[in-house]
Amino acid sequence: MSFNKMRPLLYCTGATVIFLLYYVYLEKLGTYKIEQQQTFYPPSNRNFLRNINDGYHKLLNIHFRYKHIPELCNESDRYVIGVISSPDHLENRNIIRLTWGQKALGIKVFFLIANTTDEALQLSINSESLAFRDIVQGDFHDSYQNLSYKHVMALKMVEDNCPNIKYLVKVDDDTFVNTPNLKEFLDQYDQKYGNSSNLLCNIMEYSPALRDGRWKVSVEMFSGEYYPKYCSGYFIIYPMAAISAIYRESQNENVKFLWVDDAFVSGVLAEKAGINHTSVRKLSLDYVNVTKFMEDFEEFGGRPFLVGRMNLDTGDLKTLWAFLKDHVPKTNILERLELHHL
């Protein structure tokens, strides 16, 4: 039998095995609870189900529907992490579920993906959504050029479903989040700077709009020489006030679409919405070697951080999570942050 003929069977078998293993894991933790799965279209009693004419089925410049959307936020939820993923990144999602995205840590984690034309893969996603209730899937095509749609979908998800939250943390699925430190930091930050609408991130300034190569953008799409100040997109903290303002701006028919999502959403749209930025680079491991960080924790790494560097493989994610459970930072996490424009 050829590999192509076996692919549907492999996807379905893999999804079933993953679900059973994860069920056993959560049974041991005592955190698994069977709840009704909400998929496809939201129920009529949800506060976000609005008249179709007010933009609910619009995402930037396209007609939009959710293919999967679970029960999202309770009234008590204050923080949400939205993980930008791809349909075939099941391994990344499962590593996150078993490490920094564990439900027991008290912050809701959702994975944002778009549409796939692979029927077997979609069946696997359907099973995954049913098993974990954490998949938000839009009906647009999942591609690198469509990342801006996925990024804005994260804001839309919160704007429509989570009116009581304080912050959305947007990350990529190859990024390590120090969830216990993040929760402590957001508690402290909100108490002291809760009125700020600034985006918290690693700030990119004076980045040129490239006209060739992987990141090329046409003059018709973006005419400026440099992008506005924006966030490195692998880790962005969005206050609720910023979410609402930027999402409203994204629905403006006069806004010209830009496929480079970091520059578009946290730069162009943020600037139009009057939203500024605060650097959290001191709370990021950035490009630090994970092995060196663990070996020199007391001397160089014995400090709090919110996010590891980008492009970590799944082995590094597991290793770093296991290490941090036994290594507690010695300094206040908010004290390390240089605050600007507050």
From TrEMBL:
Domain of life: Eukaryota
GO BP annotations, alphabetical order: protein O-linked glycosylation
UniProt xrefs under InterPro entries: Glyco_trans_31 (IPR002659)
Keyword Aminoacyl-tRNA synthetase among UniProt keywords: no
Catalytic class of the enzyme: transferase
Assigned GO CC terms: Golgi membrane
EC number: 2.4.1.-
Family: Belongs to the glycosyltransferase 31 family.
PANTHER family xrefs: BETA-1,3-N-ACETYLGLUCOSAMINYLTRANSFERASE (PTHR11214), HEXOSYLTRANSFERASE (PTHR11214:SF376)
Protein name stated in the entry: Hexosyltransferase
Organism phylogeny: Eukaryota, Metazoa, Ecdysozoa, Arthropoda, Hexapoda
